[in-house]
Design goal:
Elements (H helix, E strand, L loop, with lengths): L1 H29 L5 H25 L5 H4 L4 H23 L6 H18 L14 H11 L25 H6 L1 H10 L13 H12 L6
Helix pairs in contact: 1-2, 2-4, 4-5, 6-9, 8-9
């Protein structure tokens, strides 16, 4: 979605706004009549880009919000956030023209609030009630799905160092980051990225059970 919106915004600028501006300037310098439609088209595409600004900024930083991106209704949450961003941006568009319409700020705030309610109401698995999961099982899952990136020397070709400095090379390191591992792999399923290693629901449940059962190591 970010790529689609960003492509639309770039296309508006480089295919409509800038070419039309150059045509207008060329006509003015040559003393020819200026076609008003060129300015109107440029303004229309500029307004489109203005409305898309806040949604695309959120998508750019959405990796920091796994409670949204990892939610089963992520598509709905993104739609609500985008609508809220458009509403808030419209408030400022009107403000710049001398109109103060606070209701658009209110609409935007309510849409974002709805996102927070939906994101926090995700059903939680009662993994703590599972049979005790030994550390060896949890470690095998981490080694298979996490340690390719989260290691002192990552084997994943996309990383030269462990993301955020979080390495899972030793039992102590895995235990140290247990809560963050739970957040990203169990609570939100946002890791592994794109689930490129094929982490299964059973593995997530086992890893979550080990963490909720105390994240004990030998």
């Amino acid at each position: 979605m970010g790529a689609i919106i960003g492509t639309c915004m770039v296309g508006n600028v480089f295919l409509i706004i800038i070419p039309n501006q150059r045509k207008i300037v060329a006509d003015m310098l040559a003393g020819r009549p200026v076609d008003p439609r060129l300015g109107a088209m440029g303004k229309q595409r500029s307004v489109h880009n203005t409305h898309m600004t806040l949604p695309v900024i959120f998508i750019m930083i959405s990796g920091h919000y796994p409670m949204v991106t990892g939610h089963p209704l992520a598509w709905l949450l993104l739609a609500l956030i985008s609508a809220g961003g458009v509403s808030i941006r419209y408030f400022f568009i009107l403000k710049h023209s001398g109109q103060i319409r606070h209701e658009f700020l209110f609409y935007g705030a309510m849409l974002v609030f709805a996102v927070s309610v939906i994101a926090s109401s995700k059903p939680k698995k009662d993994v703590a009630a599972m049979s005790p999961v030994p550390f060896s099982t949890a470690q095998a899952i981490v080694d298979r799905h996490c340690a390719t990136c989260h290691a002192a020397t990552p084997s994943h070709k996309g990383f030269a160092a462990a993301p955020l400095g979080a390495a899972f090379d030793t039992p102590q390191q895995i235990q140290k980051y247990a809560s963050k591992i739970h957040e990203r792999t169990v609570a939100t399923t946002s890791m592994p990225l794109g689930n490129e290693t094929g982490m299964t629901d059973d593995e997530r449940a086992q890893l979550g059970a080990w963490i909720q059962q105390g994240a004990k190591i030998p």
